[in-house]
Design a protein that fits this description.
Pfam families: Nucleotid_trans. It comes from Tripterygium wilfordii. By secondary structure, this protein is of the alpha/beta class. The chain contains 14 helices and ten strands. A seven-stranded mixed beta sheet has the order 3-2-1-4-7-6-8. Strands 5-10-9 form a three-stranded mixed beta sheet. Helix 7 links the parallel strand 2 and strand 3.
Length: 383
């Protein structure tokens, strides 16, 4: 809606000022009346212009298709500012000195009390050298209730709304809602890169038990966790998992995310992780010079392939798991495993290899009916 349609033309503005003044015009001498008229008119015009600046500014450039955001709870009585400015402010406030942020997406189902979001935040608080990383974590809320809950529990929240799509319910694996959510995420992450920010993207069902930054490769543009790691970080046959990656903002990574997003048309019906498995071998990736690395599951594990030693683990992902209840069950056990390990003395921690009590309710078998890529992973693990 244009400003003209919101507030009317300049003629309406002058008539508004006149009516505002005439409503207060006292019965007094002409000189006094004239002074009052001018003072009130100027005041009304000033208030009008101030209100005018608080509405959405029309987006421009690469942000022309960016969705509207919710007004924050704290600013509920104010009009929202433009999306570009709001996202830039949130990223700037959360960024590290090198313009790196940690991002995750959240919807109502995962943000509900005693659900995924609570466990996710708890892992940062009880992890080794992870509590301070919360200062750099930005929650991307996909619906109003997720945004409201974020504003209660965390200080860096951004509401990402996709017109005509409701993401508040649990999005089951490979359903249309799930696919739309995954591809919307890829498009948003490309935007973050174009704004000049590096990011670690993490699914909210990934527990952060140790600071992962010392385990990242300094020379990689794009590095990603795996469902199945073959032992070499450069091996393109590794099975990546899109739920955790560290990406540096440069021309190579931006072009790669554009290519990744556009490739959904080449491979319709597949989710972003499947498409990544296809395009990682594409000559275009070699042509743009993207440096891709795959992260060892010894440090970045998951229920598909758990980290074997809690002395090494940085993150653990509730992947290879179907259904929110199953994820919650195994994530709670995972948290308790870590607390038990953390309570041990240093000598006991190092005296033997400590591992996990999970998976229990989660398994690759729970996903067996949701696409051949999962079946191929299952076969690799069995082999």
């Amino acid at each position: 809606m244009s400003r003209a349609s919101l507030f009317g033309s300049r003629n309406r503005r002058r008539s508004y000022s006149s009516s505002c003044a005439s409503a207060m015009l006292p019965d007094s001498a002409a000189r006094r009346a004239a002074i009052l008229f001018v003072a009130i008119s100027v005041s009304c015009l000033f208030l009008y212009r101030a209100a005018d600046t608080l509405w959405f500014l029309p987006p421009s450039g690469s942000f022309s298709s960016f969705p509207y955001i919710f007004p924050s709870i704290r600013d509920a009585i104010e009009s929202p500012v433009s999306n570009e400015f709001r996202l830039e402010k949130v990223l700037k406030d959360a960024s590290m000195n090198d313009r790196t942020v940690i991002l995750t997406t959240l919807n109502e189902a995962w943000a509900a009390p005693n659900s995924i979001f609570d466990l996710f935040l708890e892992s940062f608080r009880i992890g080794y050298q992870t509590h301070g990383l919360l200062n750099h974590l930005v929650i991307i809320a996909l619906d109003q209730k997720a945004f409201s809950r974020c504003m209660v529990l965390h200080k860096h929240c951004f509401a990402l709304v996709t017109e005509g799509v409701d993401f508040h319910m649990e999005a089951y694996f490979m359903t249309p809602a799930y696919l739309k959510m995954m591809w919307r995420r890829i498009d948003f992450l490309r935007t973050v890169l174009e704004m000049g920010y590096n990011f670690v993207f993490t699914d909210a069902d990934i527990m952060w038990f140790r600071n992962p930054f010392p385990q990242f490769y300094f020379d990689a543009d794009f590095q990603i966790a795996c469902d199945h790691f073959l032992g070499r970080p450069d091996d393109l046959q590794n099975r990546p998992n899109g739920g955790f990656n560290y990406v540096k903002s440069n021309n190579r990574s931006i072009e790669f995310y554009k290519f990744w997003y556009s490739s959904q048309e080449t491979y319709p019906g597949y989710h972003d992780q499947d498409v990544l498995n296809f395009i990682k071998l594409d000559p275009f990736v070699l042509d743009i010079g993207l440096k891709m690395k795959f992260l060892d599951t010894a440090f970045f594990g998951g229920l598909c392939e758990p980290s074997k030693d809690l002395n090494l683990v940085c993150t653990m992902h509730a992947n290879c798991c179907f259904g929110l209840d199953s994820k919650l069950h195994d994530l709670k056990i995972m948290i308790e495993d870590w607390k038990s390990f953390s309570s041990l003395s240093p000598s006991l921690k190092m005296s033997s290899v400590w591992s996990w009590s999970v998976p229990q309710n989660c398994s690759i078998d729970s996903l067996r009916h949701y696409g051949s890529p999962v079946e191929s992973i299952k076969q690799e693990l069995e082999d």
